[in-house]
């Protein structure tokens, strides 16, 4: 019971901190970066996962928020397997997301004709 309550409180705090980071990123980038760092530490201590909508919003290496085109670049690559490459323009960290599900769905739809 106690751990469930602690995780619920931690989840609420993580949500609030990410919302604060998104709002303050335009005016004070350092405060936004610090809010992301605090939210990550809270999630780590409470042993909860950061929701995917927030996980895709920041660089895991430097904590830079991915808001606007001046903080990250996105590319789609078709080598080896199709994937999306997101690069942080502050530290150069690269994150790759597989994009094969859409191809599989498309090929399955063609085969059912």
What's the end-to-end separation, in Å?
A: 53 Å
CATH architecture of the largest domain: Up-down Bundle
Reading the helices and strands in chain order gives HHHEEEH
Low-confidence sequence ranges: none
> Which homologous superfamily in CATH is the superfamily of the largest domain?
Immunoglobulin FC, subunit C
Q: Report the sheet with the most strands, covering strand number, pairing sense and barrel closure.
A: 3 strands, antiparallel
Question: What does the secondary structure layout of this molecule look like, with pairings?
Answer:
Layout: H1 2-24, H2 29-46, H3 52-55, E1 72-77, E2 83-88, E3 94-98, H4 100-111
Antiparallel strand pairs: 1-2, 2-3
Note down, in words, how this protein is organized:
50% of the residues lie in helices and 15% in strands. Strands 1-2-3 form a three-stranded antiparallel sheet, with no helix packed on it. It has 113 residues and is an alpha+beta fold.
Give a quick summary of the entry.
The protein starts with a helix and ends with a helix. Helix 1 packs antiparallel against helix 2.
Descriptive keywords:
113 residues, alpha+beta, Single alpha-helices involved in coiled-coils or other helix-helix interfaces, 3-stranded antiparallel β-sheet
